[in-house]
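look at this stuff:

>
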Amino acid sequence: MGTRRVFSGIQPTADSFHLGNYLGAVKQWVDLQESRDAIYCVVDMHAITVPYDPSALRRRTRVAAAQLLGAGLSPERCILFVQSQVPEHAELCWILGCITGFGEANRMTQFKDKSARGGADQASVGLFTYPILQAADILLYQADEVPVGEDQRQHLELSRTLAQRFNHRFGETFTVPAPYILAAVAKITDLQDPTAKMSKSSSSPQGIIDLLDEPDVIRRKIARAVTDAESVIRADEAAKPGVTNLLRIYSALSGDPVDSIAARYGDSGYGKFKKDLGELVVDTFGPIRERTAKILADTEALDAVLLAGARRARVIAEQTMSVVRERCGLPPVA
């Protein structure tokens, strides 16, 4: 059996990734490029399912790619590209949409959550079919595994269902992908509301640590993170969600088990613990921020790297679509 292939994508919907993105996705991606045949994508087509500013999208797509490179992705060890530069994503999305039930798509929780904010009547068809495009992203590259957060598990289930359905109707065509979830960092929560996921769309600025934040801003946000009335440092999701979240962050960045970190600080109070955690985050994010700035200073070189990645991705995408078209009864393209 050859090297297992992983595929994952990240949206360019903000001017910086946050700590949750880094621990839940980016750090895993960097690690996985060493042991897997890795394909990663800035999913700009997903970002246009809601109202957006074209110039901001263009800028954020570059910023997203620069952060991925700054965090340690290497074009020599993985394929990194921008989704819209590989038109086969849209083509496969249409074909998969034609074998997806309306009720099936309607049950996707993320559509319910996002459309509830502005009302379902105002939501775009693109937002509704978003999980089908996500399935196309994955299946196009015959991915064995998909690094995803817990919140995306339902979408991956749809990808698996559609792969199996297509294979059953038209013959074995797609690899059925498996989730790759690291339980320890499956959920990083808001620093100000530790019962809610850290999220650009719902967290306050003080609840999020951005990958590109200045060091003093990071230290301040950690220092002000919500804890509790005790001064004992221990993991207890129900009684101490704030402290448990900070321990989880510390563990994910340092590699030390949560229990040994808790034992190290014990009842010495939250001050020293938060100060040390702040320095750990600064030490991790500082070099990434500097490398990202350097990459963004030469957008021409960055664009060339992404275009080269798209060409490599298209070789695989075209192979898949050639088989898909033939199985579906569609003529080959010139």
In short: The mean pLDDT is 92. Strands lie at 5-10, 37-42, 78-82, 145-147, 178-180. The two ends are 34 Å apart (CA to CA).
